[in-house]
Amino acid sequence: MAALALGLATAGRAAADDGYRLWLRYGHPAPAGAVAVRGASPMLDAAAAELRRGLPAVAGPVLLASAADPSIAALNLPVSRLGEEGYLVRRGRVDGREVTLVTGNTDRGVLYGAFALLRHLDTGGSADAIDLSSAPKVKLRILDHWDNLDGVVERGYAGRSLWDWWTLPDFKDPRYTDYARANASLGINGTVLNNVNARAESLTAPYIAKAAALADIFRPYGIKVYLSARFSAPIELGGLKTADPRDAAVAAWWRAKADEIYRAIPDFGGFLVKANSEGQPGPRDYNASHADGANMLAAAVKPHGGIVMWRAFVYADTDPDDRAKQAYTEFKPLDGKFADNVIVQVKNGAIDFQPREPFHPLFGAMPKTPLVMEFQVTKEYLGFATHLAYLGPLFTEVLDAKTGRGSETVADVVDGTAEHHRLTGMAGVANIGDDRDWTGGTFNQANWYAFGRLAWDPDLHADAIAREWARATFGASPGVVDPVVAMMMISREAVVDYTGPLGLAHLMATGHHYGPGPWVSDLKRPEWNPVYYHRADRQGIGFDRTRTGSNAVAQYAPAVAKLYANPRTTPESELLWFHHLPWDYRLKSGETLWDGLVHRYDRGVATVAEMRATWQGLKPFVDPERWDKTATFLAIQEREARWWRDASLSYWQSVNGLPLPAGSAAPAHDLSWYKAQTPAFAPGNPK
Ligand code: GCV
Q: In a designed cystine with 238, which of 213, 253, 360, 579 is the match (CB 3.0 to 4.6 A)?
């Protein structure tokens, strides 16, 4: 594929490409007879079919076989370290024949090995020295679809839902298989089909049958299906008077429901639950705890081997405490109280998927409870599908953060190194919809890719993943790969700069999560208003989360709390998250906080302009369809980066009365103009 793309590029522009194939852009099918399989199973068939689709001839003959096959066992390969899902791919002689052997202790391992071989060859690996071996560090590698049964995806990123609930279970769109292939290529092994803002209908017999049809399609690719469960379903569907988790009839209803689901989907993964959060029902409605609720559901799925992923994303308007503290306050005391098939799912930061947040203080604080990391692959607060923001650096920044307990990192908590929990997990809120290119833009595919690769191995580096993806997506030419990786690696910081630099967050306008609205102060819940988060006044800006303020810093382990307690030792990228500081506070550069803030907004806009220029230079190398769309999106992004910058600066100036530093351009309009921008149906507007 790489050679083909390069050849076409040098001959003119690369061939038309609508992005449908994602990173699996194989050039030619494998030569006939190139792929042999020992044994038979749907998963081995899927592995062989994938290799036949795209194995380059240079790979020579390939043999897929379980490590338990007598001929393979006789080779004494180091397969014990592969566990249940790992693979080993190696050149060698099997039964007197020189082959590339793809093996594992399970068919699933072989499947992942087949994709690893394709990735190796597709991203420039030598065909002569094939020796690949890897096992996933995280057990549950799951996509969460926030898809509603009416086809609308929560807040509208990346088109409408991929699932056509209306024509399921009869019509099995071939896209469902391609979705499974793409996920299996990364090692993703679970998918939650419906929105955490769940409807009870997803648990009715017709919808269970629809979910079962998808489960049948995904099974050969090693992907289990999960459902978001609405906690009040026993009332809505079962006609009970209560959903109290301590009520025997409620528990019996859930047990019967679980039995019904498992009859249709024998390998059903289990439930994901958003409870007592943003209007969703939950055990707190009955003065029961989150552990009571989770454990009751866990008991229902336990006989079938299922699990419950219980979200810690809770905050209440009745709680006057800092929103950033509420999940910890509620969940920390429950450590050790959850059943052994419950895993608590925690967002990467304590507020809500902002372009930058310090890691969530629950990581490292609940040692007796397995915690799933929840990342948002879709870019709810980073320009949705339109803006280019490669999230690899956001994910790794969180995973690499030190929790303050010795040398432990967040990744150690997530992958089980820290506490050796049986269950470990990483979940990504999917950015996949029904767009032809799946994610509403080529570069958004990289975020799906990066999530999957990091769920397999949280220690991978964001730039290495970007390089791998760029090669698979655009071809091997360094003339393309190097600039594309460079663009990707600066892109997320650019969004931070033009939306909320120096630790500012949650500054978006009302009704959508797309454009700026730092002035918003009229929403009924205090913590829905941007002014709640930035607290700017004539003297200064920022949220004091030290002892003199909300003391959220005390939720971190002492070593980290100490750093965050002092503005001088707080990373400047998180400064105003933890501190309310005067406008003339001196940053490490020597400039004032105000000047530094303005310079960062300027830098954000300049970086987008730089990304645009880089992309212009790639026109000869990229197919017209993907190039044009990206070029147009970058133009939109540059315009909207200016909108964010200018709107924010006009507002800050209206508060602090300070002039812009020399060289910084005045906003194009006055504040009232920005306040008047209320685009109908902007992405992120649920109405
Ligand atoms: C699914 C934020 C989003 C909501 C989302 C919620 C959650 O508040 O804006 O759209 O709802 O997070 O993660 O549950």
A: 253
Q: Do β-strands 190-192 and 224-228 pair in parallel, antiparallel, or remain unpaired?
A: parallel
Which atom of ligand 1 is found nearest the CA of 274? 14
CB atoms within 10 A of CB 132: 16
Of 2-16, 522-536, 673-687, give the lowest mean pLDDT range: 2-16
| 110 three-state secondary structure | helix
Q: Which atom of ligand 1 is closest in space to residue 154's alpha carbon? A: 10
φ/ψ region of 320 (left if φ > 0, alpha if ψ in -120 to 50, else beta) reads: alpha
Tens of pLDDT along 338-381? 999 999 999 999 999 999 999 999 999 999 999 999 999 999 99
Measured from the Cβ of residue 177, the count of other Cβ atoms closer than 10 Å reads 16
Q: How far apart are the first and last CA of the chain?
A: 44
Helix (H) or strand (E) holding 371: strand 371-376
Could you tell me where the beta strands, DSSP code E, fall in 23-105?
35-37, 62-66, 87-94, 97-104
Beta bridge partners of 310: 273, 344
Distance of alpha carbon 250 from alpha carbon 400, whole angstroms: 42
Is residue 79 within 8 A of residue 117, CB to CB? The reply is no
The predicted pLDDT at position 5 comes to: 39
Do the beta carbons of residue 611 and residue 634 sit within 8 Å?
Answer: yes
Residue 379 beta carbon below 6 angstroms from any ligand 1 atom: no
Q: Indicate the pLDDT class of residue 686, thresholds 50, 70 and 90.
A: low
Side by side, which strands form the sheet with 131-134?
A: 35-37, 62-66, 97-104, 87-94, 131-134
If phi > 0 it is left, if psi is from -120 to 50 it is alpha, else beta; for residue 336 that is left
Q: What is the mean pLDDT of the chain?
A: 95
Q: Which residues carry out catalysis?
A: 278, 352, 380
Q: At 349, is the secondary structure helix, strand, or coil?
A: strand
In this structure, of 294-298, 437-441, 544-548, 677-681, the range with the lowest mean pLDDT score is 677-681
Q: Ligand 1 in contact with 152 (CB < 6 A)?
A: no
pLDDT value for 478: 87
Pocket probe for ligand 1: among 144, 145, 146, the residue whose CB has the most ligand atoms within 8 Å is 146
Query: Alpha-carbon distance 505 to 495, whole Å?
Result: 12
322 lines ligand 1 (CB under 6 A): no
Return the amino acid letter for 455.
A
How many angstroms separate the Cα of 305 from the Cα of each of 175, 266, 283, 294, 372?
Answer: 29, 10, 23, 15, 18
Q: What is the pLDDT of residues 448-467, one digit of tens each?
A: 999 999 999 999 999 999 99
Q: How far is the CA of 152 from the centre of ligand 1 (A)?
A: 14
Ligand 1 pocket test: which of 278, 323, 346, 375 has the largest number of ligand atoms within 8 Å of its C-beta? 278
pTM for the full predicted model: 0.97
Contacts (Cβ under 8 Å, ≥6 apart) of 371: 343, 344, 345, 346, 362, 363, 413, 414
Class of residue 320 by CB neighbours under 10 A (exposed 0-12, middle 13-18, buried 19+): exposed
Burial status of residue 76 (CB atoms within 10 A of its CB: 0-12, 13-18, 19 or more): exposed
Distance 426 CA to ligand 1 centre (A): 17
